[in-house]
Amino acid sequence: MSEFEGLVAAVTGGASGIGKAVADLLAERGAQVAALDLKPGDDGIRCDVSSDDEVRAAIDAVMERFGRLDILVNNAGIGAQGDVTANDDDEWHRVFDVNVVGMVRLARAALPHLKNSPSAAIVNTCSIAAWAGLPNRALYSASKGAVLSLTLAMATDHLPDRIRVNCVCPGTADTPWVGRLLDAADDPAAERAALAARQPMGRLVTADEVANAVAYLASPLSASTTGTALAVDGGMYGLRPRGP
Ligand code: NAD
């Protein structure tokens, strides 16, 4: 498939995990891809999404390098653990600053260029944490809930600009992030099994599976879809227990 031929995509957090899988897949399918990251690889562009100056400079660099922008994948994010008492105000501000305001900064810088694209799309990486009430993830879950609401608001506001805005909601995905969490656990194998068991399919999802969902939402194949959250979670959302 080469449905992204002639299109340019910017992917935040594009140097690792889900973002890297997205960048590789879009490139494989014909896009020119700019991977924006705090720790960019060889061809990536340095961009801390918590800095408005860096975000503007990174989008300027994309325009300089490729001359257009059609797809924005807002994927960079950080985690936080614990119940609502576990994190102080500074930590709440820091996680929202990266996970939510980071997406807003990227959108502000990218929208003037996306408006010139005949097939513009924004895909935000949300999480099943937005709705699932996961244990010991109060701050992270709240930030992803905000990403879900932001996605809906942006989809509405930019309908007249013909910019589609959707999000993916991964379940626990096998990425370096989760690898670090497992390494820090007392019993990594037992922790991995517990995370897998939480998902009805009984396994972690792969970064490539999430990337395929992002590619669908970014591509003209989903031309009639906006304001949607696509779960890639081994059935966790669709097969959730329902009340009597
Ligand atoms: P990862 O740690 O493998 O990759 C994250 C990338 O984001 C890294 O390259 C990192 O350098 C970059 N990054 C972090 N802070 C940044 C900043 N301020 N500016 C720019 N780049 C920054 O993580 P991942 O598992 O691939 O997660 C990617 C996204 O997927 C996150 O938004 C995360 O919340 C979401 N997500 C992950 C899972 C999972 O189980 N892995 C589940 C649901 C949602």
Automatic annotation (TrEMBL):
Which residue spans traverse the membrane? none
The yes or no answer to whether the keyword Oxidoreductase is present is: yes
PROSITE patterns in the cross-refs: ADH_SHORT
Pfam families attached to this UniProt entry: adh_short_C2
Q: Broadest EC class?
A: oxidoreductase
Read off the CDD domains from this record: SDR_c
Is Oxidoreductase found in the keyword set?
yes
Any one Gene Ontology molecular-function term assigned to this protein's record = oxidoreductase activity
EC number(s) recorded for this UniProt protein: 1.-.-.-
| Keyword terms of this UniProt record | Oxidoreductase
UniProt-listed SUPFAM superfamilies:
NAD(P)-binding Rossmann-fold domains (SSF51735)
- What family does this chain come from, according to its entry? Belongs to the short-chain dehydrogenases/reductases (SDR) family.
- This chain belongs to which protein, by name? SDR family oxidoreductase
Native source species? Amycolatopsis nalaikhensis
